Amino acid sequence: MDQLDCTVRNYFENDDNKRHYSNISDKIVDKRYEQLFRRYLNVYNYNLHNVIQPPKGFRIIPEEGCHTEQLTEIGALQHVILGAQLANVYRQKLNIDRSSGHKLMKVYSTTYQRTFQSAFAFMYGFIDPMTSLEYKHFPNILTTKGHLFCGSPQFCGKCDKLNYLFRSFEETRSKLLSSNKHTIDVVFKLRALISPSNKSSTFASFEALYDGVLTYLCHGSKVPCDDFNGCATTAEIEHLISSLENHYKSILKTKMYKKMNLMKTFGFYQQLIDHFESLIDDENHFKFLLFSGHDVTLIPISSVLDIYDGIIPPFASRLVFETYKNSNGNHYLRIVYNGKDLTKLAEICNSSKQCVHLQDSTGTFYSLILLDSFHHFIQDKLKELTNSDTFENACSYSI
């Protein structure tokens, strides 16, 4: 990927390049975002001790150029802008300012440089520090095992049933995707074009290959070429994307896929529920939790709620769980995906007893999930899909 232009230092002065970034944000020409990103690119005096167990060779800011293990500067720009935009929505409501981030925010990242860098870029945009002295108020970035934020060792350890489901799923998927000769030809060609020399395993999975190809498209670059394979075509790239999305759409409602995703994400949801319950009991001062992961994190988490539609999440996608408390002391949950309220589409809202349906002052209807019901929903799904009352039993019960 060395042929790609992955830096943005000079792009703010070039009107053509400003238009080029319109797919990232229609506010990219806003001077506020430009100044914010320039400060971000010149970060110094940030205490790396704030990053707990960082990956080897860790850099908090992406290097110039394109590196498969790092975020690109354009990707960083996307996350800085996202953080700034969400600050407009949440910072005042949560009373988070430049000096309270470490007290009110908790940040988790998977063990990849890209997700650490995404988390920091988002925090930078969200907190908007004016001087390096304010870095001391940034929250720690905590490393978590795997892609799925499983939380405690209870949910991160060996799980025979989940391993079996995952193997079965991968075998079925591989056969399905490999049954189409054109798909296989496209995969081999694209993999050869974008993989580093002697590292064909870099894009071994379909999702990793998709990410690699998308890097070219999202940076406005020419498609990759070499003397042996020629050039990738738009049709080939579209075929790869449609093959993956058609596959996801075909398995969304299958019991094996639902069961696997619930067991994958049970630890995450338990962690989320524990956080909600501690908020209700006024035992938790953290008002904002950030989990910086991957598309393969977001897909199973949204699948459990039955809000995943089979479309691969765009870069910098976000799934937001908002909590509310009314004057009677009742607590509710709203689910927002990439700015769209999907609460009423969640499976839990199929029951009127678990959701309330309201109308705001503009006449718009919306739904909220009772927080107690959310806890029961996850537990009930475990019993329904695995015939077990606990995660431990679900992991060990007979195939």
TrEMBL record:
Gene3D superfamilies, per the entry: Phosphoglycerate mutase-like (3.40.50.1240)
GO cellular component: Golgi apparatus
UniProt GO MF annotations: phosphatase activity
Sequence intervals crossing the membrane: none
Keyword set includes Hydrolase: yes
Annotated GO biological process: chondroitin sulfate proteoglycan biosynthetic process; glycosaminoglycan biosynthetic process
Record carries keyword Cell inner membrane: no
Swiss-Prot/TrEMBL keywords: Hydrolase
Highest taxon above the source species: Eukaryota
SUPFAM superfamilies associated with the record: Phosphoglycerate mutase-like
Catalytic activity field: 3-O-[beta-D-GlcA-(1->3)-beta-D-Gal-(1->3)-beta-D-Gal-(1->4)-beta-D-2-O-P-Xyl]-L-seryl-[protein] + H2O = 3-O-(beta-D-GlcA-(1->3)-beta-D-Gal-(1->3)-beta-D-Gal-(1->4)-beta-D-Xyl)-L-seryl-[protein] + phosphate
Similarity annotation: Belongs to the histidine acid phosphatase family.
Name under which the protein is recorded: 2-phosphoxylose phosphatase 1
